[in-house]
Amino acid sequence: MLDSVWAYDVRKPKAPAVRFVALGRDFEAENAGEDNEPTGVHVSDGDPSVHGLLGKSIDPDDSRVFFTEQHGENIVWEVIGSHH
């Protein structure tokens, strides 16, 4: 019933996965017989330079995290940490 994004701590290979987000169906997706499949997680500090390309080390405190949905209302969500 829920489509999920799972987080893995790659520094600890035997650590269990943690559900990062679970999405139920919104009204539009339900009427179309679709789900709200999460399709991507994007983490960025907004640096457009060569040094700031994806895959480069970034400061998590200066970054923003987003995830998207494929069907239904196609909402883009921003993840807000407890320090905001």
The ordered string of helix (H) and strand (E) elements is: EEHEEE
Counting structural domains, the number is 1
Oligomer: single chain
Shape by Cα distribution: globular
Query: What gap, in angstroms, lies between the N and C termini?
Result: 31 Å
Strand adjacency order, main sheet:
3-4-5
Count the beta strands.
5
Q: Please, what is the average pLDDT? A: 78
Helix content bin: under 10%
Helix/strand structural class: mainly beta
Secondary structure tally, helices? 1
**Are there runs of 5+ residues with pLDDT below 50, and where?**
none
Based on CA atoms alone, the radius of gyration comes out at 15 Å
The fraction of residues assigned to DSSP E strands is: 25-35%
The major β-sheet equals: 3 strands, antiparallel
Describe, in plain words, how this protein is organized in 3D.
The chain has one domain. The chain is mainly beta and 84 residues long. 7% of the residues lie in helices and 33% in strands. It contains 1 helix and 5 strands; from the N terminus they run ββαβββ. The chain has a 3-stranded antiparallel sheet, with no helix packed on it. It starts with a strand and ends in a 5-residue tail after the last strand. A hairpin with a 6-residue loop joins β4 (64-69) and β5. The protein has one helix at residues 27-32; strands at 3-7, 18-23, 38-44, 64-69, 76-79.
